[in-house]
Description:
The complex is a heterodimer.
Chain A: E1 5-14, E2 22-29, E3 34-38, H1 45-52, H2 55-58, E4 62-70, E5 73-74, H3 80-83, E6 87-90, H4 94-97, H5 105-115, H6 120-133, H7 149-161, E7 167-171, H8 179-194, E8 198-202, H9 206-212, E9 215-220, E10 223-228, H10 230-233, H11 248-255, H12 269-282
Parallel strand pairs in A: 3-8, 3-9, 6-7, 7-8
Antiparallel strand pairs in A: 1-2, 1-4, 4-5, 9-10
Helix pairs in contact in A: 5-6, 5-7, 6-7, 7-8
Chain B: E1 2-13, E2 16-27, E3 31-34, H1 41-48, E4 56-61, E5 64-65, H2 71-74, E6 78-81, H3 94-104, H4 109-122, H5 138-150, E7 156-160, H6 168-183, E8 187-191, H7 195-201, E9 204-209, E10 212-218, H8 219-223, H9 226-231, H10 238-246, H11 255-273, H12 277-283
Parallel strand pairs in B: 3-8, 3-9, 6-7, 7-8
Antiparallel strand pairs in B: 1-2, 1-4, 4-5, 9-10
Helix pairs in contact in B: 3-4, 3-5, 4-5, 10-11
Amino acid sequence: MKPEVMVQDLSxxxxxxxxxxxxxxSFEVYPGEFLGVVGPNKAGKSTLCQALVGLVPHFxxxxxxxxxxxxxxxxxxxxxxxxxxxxGLVFQNPFTQVTGAKLTVYEEIAFGLENxxxxxxxxxxxxxxxxxxxxxxxxxxxxxxxxxxGQMQRMAIASIMALRxxxxxxxxxxxxLDPQGSAEVFQAVAALRNQGLTVIMAExxxxxxxxxxxxxxxxxxxxxxxxxxxxxxxxxxxxxDLGIRPPAYxxxxxxxxxxxxxxxxxxTLDDAVALLRNSSVNx
Amino acid sequence: MRVRVENVRFHYRxxxxxxxxxxxxxxxxxxxIIGQNGAGKSTLVRLINGLLKPVSGEVRxxxxxxxxxxxxxxxxxxGLVFQNPNDQVFKSVVRDEVMFGPKNLGMSGDTAxxxxxxxxxxxxxxxxxxxxxxxxxxxxxxxxxIASVVAxxxxxxxxxxxxxxxDYAGVQRIGTLIEKLKxxxxxxxxxxxxxxxxxxxxxxxVVLRRGEVIIDGSTREVFSRPDLLRDSxxxxxxxxxxxQALGLSETVLSVDEAVKGIKGHRSRLGGLAGxxxxxxxxxxx
Lengths: 283, 285
């Protein structure tokens, strides 16, 4: 299968940066895949998200080497505007994303569609679809700034998704949300992914990434430390050295030397419980 | 320092109560206040530092009734770290930001600088004294806002979502700082959605739901009530969830406790039931 995103030997140094924010990063993401990106702060996760939508190198000042191809488009050879039709970016803080120019949730989601000049009927259809998908029906006429954090982040994602990108990058979209808001965002993103969207999400919540991601890209000091299935990445025994706490279920299983048939450790609650029950029966 | 919240009611708009008669006593034990957004947690801590005054009832910080004191006076006793550092940080140099509070409390320049240096070192930002806070990442700016309050050396320190945007190292650092403040006899109150952090650092937890206290007890007692927590949209710590899913008899709060609990479970089984798999399976339901 042809990759939807190809990142080849990507290095980037901000003009005011002492070290490279990204250093020889290579990976591929396939259509419909959910790639979780984990790593400590300053590992390069945000810069990577910005590179996927072309803000690096087109907006920020710095030196870029290597190549990013998203949806078949080389990010160097296009503009951020043009690329935004293919790749969307959701910021960490929804306040950063909200235009502030619109008085209702409906108008906010319609804003990007108006800007690309879609006919009114199409705008109405897409906004209604997004409002339904992200559970925003009861707040469609509310002011965006009256929403809870979870609702606002879902509105921000809906605004991006209304543009129908093939790929979406999310930069720690749940870091400021309560557990309910966070669950809402993960569920909405999972629903979109089930419709064929390719998802790349930077996130600190390892238990959530373990549950939702198909593969995990582990970054450390601008480099790729691992890129594999969650149970493979989180089974590594040097995660703490790389600034990542393993999922609690994985840590418990490690202490009990409880492994899956392929030798990896369980990374989700259901997986850990099933293994423990089996081991209990077989012991 | 003791903080007493007595039958406090509060609303921002008439007819929309945010706190509906909350009574809580804080003395000594570090306490986590948990609950869904909109439960009234941030309102409660703003009543303690005097930014808000009760509609009825009273809040006492030591022998001061907050209704009788300005926020500036109360700042001598209560420090509050805001949830969003962008709402708190306003100076263009980290050094000035962190020294602002201590100087306002009347500390001399030298003392304020020493206190600020120590607080910044505690959050791992000793090298950022001359930086502009808005050149820092959100996670670092949060640490600056924490240092700004800690440097004031108040008897009561309140944190609103201290671990927001932090990575593993940041969470560890904030945990270590809170332990240090506890050891110095500070009264610590924190609002947080990070239940692993609550289990690790706070011996007492209070759950708020729609302006009312639903549970107030030891953290272990609180996390042993998944039914009530679910109604309040609170997920217990991951290790606790594992223990509960396995049906362990004790509520576990950490990975270590879960491991011990599971091992104990197995050895009791070995002694009691041998290879009775039916019993064993039932035991792990």
